[in-house]
Amino acid sequence: MTRFDVAIVGGGLAGCSAALHARLKGASVILLERGRCGGQASGVNYGGVRQQGRHPAELPLACRSRQIWGRLAELVGTDCEFTATGHLKLARNDADMQSLLAYRDIARDYGIDLEILSVADLQCRYPYLGDGYSGASLCAADGQANPRLAAPAFARKARELGVTVREHCELEHAEKVADGFQLTIKGEAEQLTAGRLINTAGAWGARVARWFGDEVDEQVMAPNMCVTEPVAPLIGPNLGICGGSIYLRQTKNGSVVFGAGLGVADADRLWARPLAHVSMEAARAAIAMVPQLANVLVVRTWTGIEGRMPDGLPVLGESRKAQGLFHAFGFSGHGFQLGPAVGAVLAELCLDGTSATPIDGLSLGRFGLARALASAPSMLPKQ
Amino acid sequence: MIIGAGPAGISAAKTLAAAGERPVVIDENVYPGGQIFRRPPAAFARNETQLYGFDASRARRLKSTFEAIAPSIEYRAETLVWSVEDRRLHVSTAGILKCMPFSRILLATGAMDRVIPINGWTAPGVFSLGAAQIALKAQATFIGKRVVFIGTGPLLYLVAYQYAKAGADVAAVLDSSKPFSKITALPALLADISNFSRGLFYVSQLRLRGVKIQTAIAPVEIVAGDRGVSSIRYEQSGQQGQSDCDAVAIGYGLRSETQLADLLGLSFQFDRRQRQWLPVTDGAGRTSVPHVYIAGDGASVRGSEVAEWEGELAALSLLEDMGRGSQKRASVLRRRIDSLSPFRRALDEHVFPFPHHFAEAIRDETIVCRCEGITAGQIRETVATTGEADINRIKAFSRLGMGRCQGRVCGAAACELIAATARTDISATGRLRGQAPLKPIPLSILAGDRR
Ligand SMILES: Cc1cc2nc3c(=O)[nH]c(=O)nc-3n(C[C@H](O)[C@H](O)[C@H](O)COP(=O)(O)OP(=O)(O)OC[C@H]3O[C@@H](n4cnc5c(N)ncnc54)[C@H](O)[C@@H]3O)c2cc1C
């Protein structure tokens, strides 16, 4: 029976980064991925790398991730096309402006600089933008990256350093045993054991958690994405909008990627599909944002399978039921930026027992509390 | 709902109409007839014999069939299907989008050229065989003054002949196969005497007109300068050859148009003879998805006559599944189709085999994916540095097939190149998945903006 210090289930960006970081700390590591590394959400997302607009519970993690994004080349041998093009969040009205101002103060506490722009600033710096915005907030440190490259790059580096990366390999079941975890792989008789288990199974994370009695309600979501043919450089920053769902960026090669609304996905069948009417809606929103795009050709639409938590925040932390089991899943549509730091924090939690990055607001316990309150108030667990 | 108004789609429509159904027939072209029976606009009218030669009577028959059933079907010309979701079809007509619900769908989407890139293929003046034929049929023009036809397959000789007959200067026909060397050894060809003798007729007509026909050639490069193509260089039994020309038409047989089948979630399997992934069928037009039927070259490239029979057969299967089929007619059709299969097999395997070794040998500096400007060297390097041999992974890492054509033009050759570089079987490279929109659409149209 083969034994590892750490076993990781799920080769998305979170899992691949965890594998690399755990290996860098000297652990023997195995990563199990049902399909290909980066084949699910981590490889097909929009590619936005932003701290701006995140819930304060995620901000320490997002800041740490931003640092890793900035030194990817050093860490994994490629920058995954990460560029700090800035993230511009547009306000539709005065109320939006107020909320951008309030958010600037929150962000400042985490060391994130946001620049508030007036309508005049917008017109002079981003003349291609449509009318009707009241201003915006710019986070110059944010930007974009190529999602197709990121998780595979982490996996490749991890493998180079000695991590056993097993693709096309599904973890069918895992069990807590005295000295760790016993893992059963689909179609294989021989079992593996590991001292620690990391659950980065994305939209399938709650299933893995359930094997250990960690009950949590994870749904799926499928952000609807579109991409155009390449056009001459036009749009600098990654664009978002207060309250509106449209987000839009131009890649290095000139294509404009945008998304708005949701497609459909079925986590059981590993199947996800954009929806025509959602793409049409997105096209309208994209033209409203950047009118010059009207005659550009859309060449492809797609989506992916992402896990969504009831409060829109991921689960990150140790299991309440099984010591040595660490969860990181349910990123609710914004885990790409977080991925690199999620891996680093997981490696620390599981090998050092603690992480310097505060993640208190992300524990699985926050749902347990609500659930316990709803069902059996007398059995309130200690928080 | 029938997609495609070529021989397969028309005969399916006729069959359904005859059974009292009122099918909707959707087609991208201005006129029905599909690729084979494309028509010029009225201003350039030429008669059927001029346009279609031996197929003139069939063209006339199909045209009159179509006219006869016109009142019993709903025909939407110049309509592009850009997406399909379960039982809803999304179409675009003259820039206006519509969503059309349906209960059953019959795909008759045909095929398109299979191209193997060579140096110079992106120069002005280089066309696919199909495009050269469209220029002639639908626009009554030639792609150049002095044209070389290169590639392989029945279409190579047919289009060259059509050009010569219409008065073009055909500089040469360069065939990678050696189609006439094995003829006597291939009784299978006699299974379809008429098609076979047509091939011989085209060749003899071309020879009569003094057209140089070279077989067993290997392309080297298309030489092009500022003013476009000037010549093409090739090799033949170790000797260098060259033909001066100002236009080149390339085509190595056809590949099925399967994106719609893909969006509908059909199962595919790799067909070794045609070296491409094809939808799985039951031999009578049924697919792996109960309400989806398929016929013609979109199911498997077997030419327009088989397509016509298959269209009828698939329609009969559809009717049978609705509880009203005619098994007698279906078995007649099946027998007919089967009787031609030795002929098609012989074409694919012996007479005009797809020269995949050309794809493997594409020079490093040659652009394979022209939408994204990805060269053969870049593809080989991606395979080597990532250790990947899956076309979708190579796509993700190199941008191959990510542009306007979504790999419809470059995919076949790229798969061969990847398989050869990684030394894996061609089927192991997998296939590029179709995604909506099936063809690029301007944002303004998607937005429903009719400016
Ligand atoms: C279309 C789309 C757009 C998005 N846009 C952005 C964006 O712009 N910015 C941003 O920050 N985030 C974005 N996101 C979210 C982001 O992509 C995800 O939050 C993030 O990639 C999640 O990473 P992950 O590693 O948790 O999950 P995944 O990448 O889904 O990885 C989980 C992996 O676990 C594997 N797995 C599951 N169960 C098992 C098992 N039993 N055995 C073996 N393997 C298993 C799966 O195969 C999968 O590969 C987007 C998501 C989508 C879908």
UniProtKB/TrEMBL annotation, chain A:
Keyword presence, Oxidoreductase: yes
GO cellular component, one term: cytoplasm
Signal peptide start and end residues: none
FAD dependent oxidoreductase domain span: 5-349
SUPFAM superfamilies: FAD/NAD(P)-binding domain
Keywords recorded for this protein, A-Z: Oxidoreductase
GO molecular function annotation: oxidoreductase activity
Domain of life assignment: Bacteria
Gene3D superfamilies, alphabetized: D-Amino Acid Oxidase, subunit A, domain 2, FAD/NAD(P)-binding domain
Protein name: FAD dependent oxidoreductase protein
Source organism of the structure: Rhizobium etli 8C-3
